[in-house]
Amino acid sequence: MHIAHIVAYDRQRIIGINNTLPWRVPNDMQYFKRTTWGHHVLMGRNTFESLQGKPLVQRVNMVLSSNPHYRPERSIHVSTLAEAIALARYEGEQELFIIGGGILFEQTLSICTRLYITELDMVLPVAPHDTVTYYPTLVADEWAMKEETSLPADMKNPCAQRYMILERKQGSR
Fold first, then answer.
1. For the whole model, what pTM was predicted?
2. Is the separation of the CB atoms in 97 and 108 below 8 Å?
3. Cα(161)–Cα(122) distance, rounded to whole angstroms?
4. In the prediction, which pLDDT does 31 show?
5. DSSP state of 142
């Protein structure tokens, strides 16, 4: 089973500001939906709550929280990363998607075998009081580009986007 990150970030690697997605890029939202549709998705509690506590449709939503009493709506609560991986494997998942947030991305980058990255050609303004979440820096030698597509900005999408699928090189863990 592949363990994959799916993430979008700006030129500064920002993935969130104040626990919100700080942009609206319909192309990326469609890509995210199409890529994760029918799969297990794993997210941290803050990410789930940033979705207004509503699970993503047509996906098995797993929410990682150390609080044993946490009960996410129409989603599966998992207490550990190992529990989430074991459940996805048990249910026959071929690719588990980790969708955020920042801490979960940091904790799981070393076990990922595939990355779906959208680079947005924008620089987000950040105020001094903002809580900013960044995607971790990759070690370039550990990853091989498998696919790359670029789309220009248009009337609905405020910036150009670069979609990349990276796979971990053999022996780089």
1. 0.95
2. no
3. 9
4. 98
5. G
HEC sequence for 98-132 = EEECHHHHHHHHHHCCEEEEEEECCCCCCCCCCCE
Over residues 13-51, the pLDDT tens digits come to 999 999 999 999 999 999 999 999 999 999 999 999 998
User: Phi then psi for 125, rounded to 5 degrees?
Assistant: -75, 135
CA distances from 95 to 13, 34, 39, 114 (A): 24, 14, 7, 9
Tokens, residue 45 = 């509690």
Q: Are strands 161-168 and 114-120 parallel, antiparallel or unpaired?
A: antiparallel
User: Looking at residue 88, what DSSP letter applies?
Assistant: H
Q: How many CB atoms lie within 10 A of CB 60?
A: 18
In the predicted model, residues of the chain with pLDDT beneath 70 are: 173
Tokens 């990682």, residue?
64
- Nearest Cα to Cα of residue 26 among 119, 160, 161, 156: 156
Secondary structure element (H or E) that encloses residue 4, with its range: strand 2-9
| SS3 category, 25 | coil
How far is Cα 165 from Cα 114, in angstroms, rounded to an integer?
A: 7
